[in-house]
Amino acid sequence: MSQDTPGQSESRQYLRDFWTFVQPYRRPLRTVYLLFLANSLLNLIPAYSIRFYVDLVLVGKDCSLLGFPLQHIAEHAPRERLTSTAWFVGSMVLLILVANTIGVIMHRLATRSVERVLFDMKVKIHNHINKLSLGYFDSERVGTIMTKAVGDVTNLSMMLRHTFYLTYMAVQVLLTPVLMLTMSPLLFVVAIVPLPLTIRAFYAIRVKLKPLYREQRESQSIINSQVQETVTGIREIKAFNLEQRADSMYKDVNTRFYNLQNDIARVWSFNHQLQHGTRDLTMILIAAAGGAFVVFGIGDVSVGTIMSFIAMVGLIYGPIGAFLSFFETFQRGMVSLERIIDFLNIEPDVRDQRGAKPLKRHEIQGRVCFRDVCFSYAGNAPVLHNISLDARAGEKIAVVGPTGSGKSTLLSLLPRFYDVDTGSITIDGHHIAHHTQSSVRRLIGVVFQETFLFYGTIRDNLLYVNPEKTEDDMIDACKAANVYDTIEQLPDGFDTPVGERGIKLSGGQKQRLAIARVFLKDPVIVILDEATSAVDTVTERLIQESIDRMLKDRTAFIIAHRLSTIKTCNRILVLDNGRIAEAGTHEELLARRGKYFALHESNRL
Question: What is the pTM (predicted TM-score) of this model?
């Protein structure tokens, strides 16, 4: 009893995983397979019928159909060649019309069914992207993710479509030899002489192509990432005169893809010529051997039999060649399927515990406690060490420190962008790890240093966080964020397109829109990560005013270097190498003349 190799076992597991997407549509897909089966059977009839037309009508030779003699037809057909030819042609035209009608129906149904399967898969991939933790995106290239979400799904689409044609080809390859055997076993032996060469070539190509396709997909991912980086960083490229370097880097990664494409094309060029060569060689062998059999009276071979055999060669070697082409698609599809399933099987680092309950807003006042919190990124060296702090509801806490001290990391733990290694974080006594991520994040509003705006209008971006808010709510939020007057001056007001990543708006405008979004979300806790950095003094004043309104009666954690933002906080935490080095008010920390004093005196605050 043979055992599967590890590779075969893995492939079957991937196909089983894929079946979960196909299973909901198995009924229409089954109908498609049956239509392909019927269509392939109809397409066998013309090649098989040529024998009877030639022998009965043109030659007048007696023959039989599945053991039944056709002597009566043989006696009359030659005298009525025109009528018999008309009947034959008319029958074949009707047959072709029926086959083509079935073909139209099956292709439409196949397209609809395949697109439904792929629609579900694309939605699943997009949902999974949103479920993955930030740690995954810290280490994975954007282009790789895009290739899986778009390019690999396209390859899978081609593979699924080709499985229908595989049914069509399989019927022809299996039934055509049976029909050949019923007509002439001797000529059948001649027809299959080149077949082992084709099968051997198929196996060799299979072994050669799979690793090439895997490298090709990886290379395509790198190219996508390179293009994405070029588009995203086009201002930096132009500002630093990096066009030639960017072009050189793209040329390097594209050269690898070019070489892989050439390697794949070389293999398929050999296969293409081999398939055509073996088919043509088979036709020549049938014509030569069949002619000799007719001349010397060897076996029950007729001119009509030779003609049918030549027509049927295309029904055997054509599908075999197409099957090898399908195998190319199948190899691409399997590589893409493996990449997609592996991606979908990635477990997020941050997961809701079994039985996790949502945090209810009416139970929350805003007290936040960190207890002996330690954290490291993906098993690397610890970034935070034994952090403990107790923020009262409504308290404003600034977090300062040199670059790399762990400020942003510390506050990214509160909305569970990452989970702590050891220790605990609680909100009003509720351990956040015991509650759903969505309910924890619903209580928290975040304004990042770099504001991201989605492609669309200002209105789209504001209501993105809470689509149920009214026009008046949106206006009030923008007024509170000191951005309403700016929006009013725009030609299209709230319906003004912001461009890709908000490129049509200034940094200060984007920052105030981000604050307006927080107003619309109406959180209990607010995190500000360098919200007033890199803006002029006038814009800073407008942003600071909107921040003061936003933080009223809310617990806030503020990362900032602006003294105007820090000094009004109830407490200031000074981080150094992942530890709390100092804590106190602005005046208290200056009086201690410690690390905070050093930061202040060095103009880093």
Answer: 0.73
